[in-house]
């Protein structure tokens, strides 16, 4: 009967009704019959009460039915037989476990298993070595306490026999080998080993072994070579580029970690890195000589401008424009790999100039005369960051871009600077506030100021705009590459927009440099003057500091000198 109709019947009638349909689950034991008012009724099972007919079907407590009916969550066609211990996902077999949908969990599991195995291998090797050292040192200490020395200890241990069949020379060799090895283990355990003593012990062991290298030979050079081989074997099955710093650190054993930390503390790690030489320091006529030439040209140009009439002003502007166009053509030739002048090849370390640089008139009809100071601020951040990263713009691409935007408000915001001093001081303040200044290299900002002066000077007096175009071309290329590697959503989308705006500003500054060759020359002279002023101030401060330190030393000597001395 329909359960809904059954529920509407009175209880007295409902108790007389009997289901004649087949049950979903039949019990093996036949239920006892019931009698009511002399009428024999079949039993309705253990359920008693009005809600027994509406109770839901119970599943088996062991969950075997659920497991057999659950479908694989990966392929969604086969029944699941296993559960992933990491993410509790039900799957049917190995193919689904290794599928791309489950690769994040499975690859992490394999990586952790390999790293754990490598850790255990390193532990067992080091533990075995330490245990052997303890055994040898124990033998040596026991031999010192016994009367017969090492020979009696080895006889008690059963290594030497009392039989006369064994030659005396062979027994003496065994005793000598154990004594040498125990002494070597004692030196290693105490940490007071000297290279000469270790070499003498190893030489004796080699002589006893007939010139063949013994298994216990632990020469420092050989040990280092073995360490390198072991590390190479450990890293052979791993993708080093995808491993994090923590995972790489766990691959190293305790000895390798100690060596690495000693290299950092002693400053020897920096000696392994080749320092990059900035390309902008190369000038055809020499840096100072070229600055003097630029000063003469600019002073001559100013005198001509003060004495000429309006018509001559027009012609001079045309000459300047022609010179800037000629410089632009030379830079395009340099980008294509041609020679910049007769008989002089291009410098391969200088970044190539962008092939497409728009005209300034197409970007801005009336550019501000203060643009040159924003250019100085951008180049200051660029040169400081490039030197700090040792010209590594590939592996540290995002860090390079973020740091340049953090140090240059001309690229990161719409700030306008009114002088060279303001543009440089802003960059120096951001270096100090952001914690980018290395305490061991406090002159890095001073070198960045000099770098901007070098870039504005150019390679030679005929090509003053070349280095500026190359610098902004490299900056544009790195920003565009970093932008293309980011997605358009979330935080990466916001960073992508910042990189895009900064690259467009670099493009605008390139166009300004192409159209203002004479302005670049004046800016170079102003930068060199500012650099010399800062150098003179720094030198005077260092001299004053030296005088103060010397006076403090004299006062300390006076205090330490005895005012009253007892005469004997």
UniProtKB/TrEMBL annotation:
Claim: Zinc is one of the keywords in the record: yes
Superkingdom as given in the UniProt entry: Eukaryota
Region (Disordered): 19-64, 302-353
Zinc-finger in keyword set: yes
Keywords: Metal-binding, Zinc, Zinc-finger
Domain HIT-type: 72-105
Signal sequence, start to end: none
One Pfam family it belongs to: zf-HIT
Record's protein name: Zinc finger HIT domain-containing protein 2
Organism, scientific name: Notothenia coriiceps (black rockcod)
Gene name tied to this protein: znhit2
